[in-house]
Design brief:
The complex is a heterodimer. Chain A is α/β, with parallel strands linked by helices. Chain A contains 14 helices and 17 strands. Chain A folds into two domains: about 140 residues, Aspartate Aminotransferase, domain 1 (Alpha-Beta Complex), CATH 3.90.1150.10; about 260 residues, Aspartate Aminotransferase, domain 2. By secondary structure, chain B is mainly alpha-helical. Classes of the chains: A alpha/beta, B mainly alpha. Chain B: It holds the Pfam family SufE.
Amino acid sequence: MSLDIQKIRGLFPVLHQEVHGKPLIYFDNAATTQKPQSVLDALTKYYEHDNSNIHRGAHALADRATRYYEDTREAVREFIKARESAEIIFTKGTTESINLVAQSFGRKFIGKDDEIIISTMEHHSNIVPWQMLCEEKGAVLKIIPINEAGEILFEEFEKLLSKKTKLVSIVHASNALGTINPVKKIIDAAHAVGAKVLLDGAQSTSHLEIDVQALDCDFLAFSAHKLYGPTGLGVLYGKRELLEAMPPFLGGGEMIKEVTFEKTTYNDIPFKFEAGTPNIADVIAFKASLDFFKSIGKPAMKAHEDSLLAYANEQLKDIKGFIPVGTASDKVSVLSFNINGMHPFDVGQMLDAKGIAVRTGHHCTQPLMKRFGIEGTVRASFGVYNTKSEIDKLTEGVAQLARLKNK
Amino acid sequence: MSSIKEIQEEIVSEFEILGEDKESTIFYIMELGENLEAFPESERVDENIIKGCQSKVWLTADEVDGKVHYKADSNTDITKGLISLLIRVLNNRRPEEILKADLNFIERIGMGSIIGSQRSNGLSAMIKQMKLYALAFQTKQNA
């Protein structure tokens, strides 16, 4: 079934504008997606009708806000097919979710000479928290190498696994290359040596059907703003038994059961990990994004995005000087490339002048760029509202720029 | 040799001809970079890199007959064009002239909206470094 893309575009007010006198072509969806009107309306409605601090409030507004907030938690549970909504913790974003695991699970369960495995293609937010933990604990960080296409070398990963491995923290889909990692195999292999697995789902959750129970991952981190939802909001999924065994991350209100000056007992999950007044408005509005996914269906969205990626590859591949970066066989709709003889910043700025929004640089994956021996790439990433005619504009732009340096 | 003020007027009128079209303006800036004096490979070292620029910019300065002679290079074409504008205005002048220079052409041509905020910060860093060189030569001359 093919989607009515024009109808979908109609739901996104931001898309209907000109930049530098040209119609906006938004190809920076891996950085953040645009928000449908329903999400904007949910935000406004909350502040106009329901604004109140949640939980413990003995009045109608507090009761309503609490109910809507918890409705989103249930919708997230359904979105990733978790066993129960208590396993869903709201955070500021993927970065905070990973740091929560590092600071809480890591500090308690990872010690001297223990090993943590990540891959070459991790975002800095899935590198630095582990480096900080390793430094503090005397633990060791191991890196899974990749091939030229940007795919993990699974047999090398297996060699890194041992009884010392306590955690494998791996990106589900690479933000810089689009590679989809074989996470089920990775999780099973890690579990076989007794290690836990955290999936960085920042890029995968918007494209792939996620079933945390079937995957059997121990943690999953992702952000709402890459799911056509509000900024400043993320999710950490964790298995109940792990979350219960982990100490709190932040101390304060909401996360306690009872406080005396002698001793504090902590609240149950998920509240134990949601200290302070949470981002109520954005959590409530996030439900509208999840409803947006439901209304269209992820498989149909992915089919459309895959067709855009295939079309873009086909159009661009024969341009003299076009260099794709990341050519894995299994990818989400991320197209990273360079133009021979041109700096990615310049390409990005020239495309911007044409109204085309792409991202340029190292994409917070400096070790990955180093692996490929490049400073950065130009990254076009496609969302459900993008079209083939927009890709034609990108192709024209890239061809024009490539001609400058590749005569 | 034209004054700093006169050269700035020239640049402003060149950009006025280009009009509002951002694309042709950026192409023009890129072309300007091609006029830069060749930068010696041996000077392409970390000590000559200007801090505060996203792209790499190398800048050196020599004193020739009491005047400051700049050489610069970058790994991106647009940045090269920007430096070439600064060099066109400030090159081969006495340190005190450079230090006094009010580079109003940048604002007058609306460079901020042409190149965006990241590159604008880089441009400010370049000007600062060029003035620092001038200050160093002035201090030496007055010693």
